[in-house]
Amino acid sequence: MNVRQRGFTLVEIAIVLVIIGLLLGGILKGQEMITQAKIKNVIADMSGVSAAMYGYQDRYKALPGDDKGATRWTTAGILAGDGDGIIEGTYLAGAASEAGQFWFHLRSAGFVSGTGADNPFNAVSGKMGVQTGDGTANTPAAVLATVGPPAVPGFTGLMLCSANLPDKIAISVDSQMDDGNGKTGSVRTQKQAAPNPATIAAAADAYSEDGVSSYVVCRQM
Fold first, then answer.
1. Residue 149 has pLDDT above 50, yes or no
2. SS3 category, 4
């Protein structure tokens, strides 16, 4: 007795393919929405820190981190700055530096969330920090002659840096805040060789959208 095996019809196969296409489209759209949300969060964080700094400066007539009157707060670990108008130290220098105390002062004044002098994280788990120029302002010449200055991507004034940004996010942040060119403008970038680099390299880099590169993006404040 012959048994006929019934397969899928062309209509059934077409329906399955349409369903698969819709599912893939939804997944890709969801991923794009997540990426766009991260871009917006990175930009909001950088803009928010600038606003917090200027708010602090307006209230206390000093820069956070450099504020000589920071001992108005009695929190353990808080340090007063020297009041010279320069936030000293590299952007991840830690609590002993004015760059680290920048966060402690802002938090103590209620301008940003969190506690202590720890560097905050951005939307992609990279650290954020501030520094002035190459971070060696007021460092004795004898020290600089021995260790050399940690360099920066073309800035001499105060800047805010955000690390570990994937290529697509870094490019979008630069495009929306500046000119989209990592080597020019008020937003510049450095390609990372390791997560959360402790220092920022000498020359700004051009972006390379290869799907694997990460960047530390710095914005002049």
1. no
2. coil
Q: Which fold has domain 12-220?
A: TcpA-like pilin (3.30.1690)
| Residue 59 in tokens | 């209230």
Beta strands in the chain (DSSP E): 128-132, 158-166, 187-191, 214-220
One-letter amino acid at 123 equals A
Residues 6+ apart with CB under 8 A from 145: none
pTM assigned to the model: 0.81
Q: Extract the tokens encoding 110.
A: 């209620």
CA atoms of 131 and 153, how far apart (whole Å): 12
Domain coordinates of the chain in residue numbers?
A: 12-220
Q: Give 137: exposed, middle or buried? Use CB within 10 Å, 0-12, 13-18, 19+.
A: middle
